[in-house]
Amino acid sequence: LLADVTSALNIFKSRWLIPVLTHTLSLRPLLTVWDAILSRPMRERASNPKLDFLVYVCTSMLLRTKNVLLR
User: Would the pLDDT of 24 be above 80?
Assistant: First the structure.
């Protein structure tokens, strides 16, 4: 089950999250996020640092716009 979730997250990350960032962020913050993602180590046995960072970025974006989204 965990392998299925991880596989689905990797597909979700590459097909949806990264393109969404290009439409959501202006160029300078976008390049900063991409630089941070690309500088993370490759996938390790029990974790995926690139995916973890991307989830943190998207979570922080949602928290920042929480009040607007709940209107």
Answer: yes
